[in-house]
Design goal:
Low-confidence stretches: 1-6
Mean pLDDT: 88
CATH class: Alpha Beta
Order of helices and strands: EEEHHEEEEEEHHE
Strand content: 25-35%
Shape: globular
CATH topology: Phosphatase 2c, domain 1
Radius of gyration: 17 Å
Largest sheet: 5 strands, antiparallel
């Protein structure tokens, strides 16, 4: 369902597909909480690290913990973005410790990337670790990547949750104008797609939720035709132009 607010309205859409793989090691979540005249929005994607054990467990555990923290906190405590950012960072640290201990208990390392958004009104905070991404699109279709991938030149991850040493998430603060769009996605979704193209079939997500859903699935099918073998997950959040 589209996420709506008394003051600021948003349309949302998502895609979660395993592609040609037997298992889907991606996880995602969208949640919203209303308090009084405010609606807060949460969105996150995570990609279990290939080559490690239980990637689907790692990504789903992190996403579920973040979503639970968001809902419980916004129902009971201060809902400003500074408070939510601190909460999300604490949850990410706790999940890193939990998954590290899980790996020691089972004898198999596990880990996941994570990219998440907390939105209140026309303002958002973006946090991420790894190579899942956030793209931002203006009203006229111009897109840009927010932040940078945490990877070495050979493609290995520098930062992730659950494996290796703990690194704090990168944090970006955004103000969203009416008509602007955010796209959270895993590497299987963006690797072959021309997501920054301002025109043509790969142009960004405009109009309503139905169009956004079709656009996500179009990109997914095109990625398959281009040879993408990874899982593909994406969330689109668009601020409606007429609030």
């Amino acid at each position: 369902m589209p996420a709506q607010s008394h003051a600021v309205n948003y349309d949302t859409a998502y895609l979660w597909e395993r592609g040609v793989r037997e298992h889907n090691e991606d996880s995602l979540a969208i949640a919203s909480v209303v308090r009084g005249r405010e609606r807060l929005l949460f969105a996150a994607v995570a990609d279990g690290i290939g080559g490690l054990h239980d990637g689907e467990y790692a990504s789903s555990h992190v996403i579920c913990s973040l979503r639970r923290s968001f809902i419980e906190h916004t129902h009971s405590y201060n809902t400003n973005l500074k408070s939510l950012t601190a909460l999300m960072l604490r949850t990410l640290y706790s999940e890193h410790i939990y998954l590290s201990d899980h790996g020691k208990r089972t004898g198999f390392d596990t880990g996941t990337t994570v990219s998440l958004l907390c939105i209140k009104g026309g303002h958002a905070v973006y946090m991420h670790l790894g190579d899942s991404r956030l793209y931002r699109y203006s009203v006229n279709g111009t897109g840009r990547l927010i932040g940078r991938d945490h990877i070495y030149r050979d493609g290995r991850l520098i930062r992730a949750i659950g494996t290796g040493r703990y690194y704090p998430a990168d944090i970006h603060r955004l103000s969203l104008r009416p008509g602007e769009t955010l796209l959270l996605c895993t590497d299987g979704f963006y690797r072959r797609a021309a997501l920054l193209a301002p025109t043509g079939e790969d142009a960004p997500f405009t109009r309503n939720r139905s169009v956004m859903c079709k656009k996500l699935y179009y990109i997914y099918e095109r990625n398959l035709m281009l040879g993408e073998k990874d899982n593909q997950s994406a969330i689109v959040i668009r601020r409606i132009q007429h609030d």
